[in-house]
Amino acid sequence: MSRRDDAEAAGRQVVPQDAVLGFFGLCVFGQRATPREADLKVPTQVMLSVAGRLGISEPATRTTLNRMVHRGLLTRHKQGRTSAFELTPEAHTLLAQGRNRLFSARPFDHDPGIWTVLSCPLPETLRNTRYQLQVRLTWAGFGPIQPHVWIAPGRVDVDAMLGDLLTSDVGHLVQAFHGTPTAPSDPRELVTKAWDLSALRGVHEAFLDRWENAEPPPGEALSQLLSLTDDWGRLLRSDPGLPAAYLDDDWPAPRSARTFSRLCKRLGPGAEEEIDQMLRTGSG
User: Fold this and answer.
1) Considering only CA atoms, which of 137, 138, 132, 38 is closest in space to residue 90?
2) Which of 87, 145, 146, 172 is the most buried (most CB within 10 A)?
3) DSSP string of 192-254?
């Protein structure tokens, strides 16, 4: 991935499924002390309005909602002549786990010297499980070093991350370990095998180019916050928070974290007000 590609990626249109999940994340969890109800049902018209603000067409949004129902991420409920959508328990867990890191005060910090190693040889027949597994591993900071073998910096609670996903007939296929690399393993070699450090720097720089000096206009808090969290989530899925010993002194992660925190504090209250109004009226 080149620096130019990274810059273009940071400013690209939000992927429809990411927009839907991002909006549900703000609806259910938000940034308030007390989350909204977990079984919140969002009318179709609200989803169309939110996606439209992000430049996503109505047909693309409707297609995405249908696909997410088939993938087991959303449940559809009829409300008269229209429909509303609710997160499935699996999607709720996925969002909760992802948002723990998304809004962490120190998303790139881990226990020094400790790594988590995971072997996940799931069969092709479990496509939906494999998909959800990869999403969760990416969010948790894992990078592949061999087919079906992943590593992540720090002590990841694998059971909490995957326990609800792995049924008894496949759970025995997953093996997890915490520990430190030892000879002949070279930690630096493992890091460069699992992650492209130049590409990671490029993702940070693209994020900073777009947001570090941004002053979002009033009246667009929700769409700006969704775009910001989408870019931030893409960055976190790229950068797991690698040990400083393997990074340059000017590694940009701290600047990125400060930028995200500043804008969240600025945009959060306005976005919450917009969401409350949408859910009260059932429209945008």
Assistant:
1) 132
2) 87
3) HHH--HHHHHHHHHHHHHHHTT--PPTT-HHHHHHHHHHHHHHHHHH-----GGGS-TT-SHH
Contact 55, 13 (CB under 8 A): yes
Q: Give residue 77's identity as a one-letter amino acid code.
A: H
Strands 41-43 and 143-146: unpaired
Residue 238 phi/psi, 5-degree rounding, is: -90, -40
pLDDT digits (tens, 9 = 90+) for 150-203: 999 999 888 888 877 777 667 778 889 999 888 888 888 889 888 999 999 999
> Which residues have C-beta within 8 Å of that of residue 262, sequence separation ≥ 6?
none
Residue with tokens 């005060």: 105
Residue 35, pLDDT score: 60
Render pLDDT for 20-47 as a digit per residue (tens, 0 to 9): 999 998 988 876 545 666 678 999 999 9
* Tally: H helices and E strands in the chain: 12, 7
Cis ω before 121 (30° cut-off from 0): no
- Residue 128 CB-half CA count within 13 A: 12
The pLDDT confidence band at residue 9, using thresholds 50, 70 and 90, is very low
Note the pLDDT of residue 1: 34
Amino acid type, 273:
E
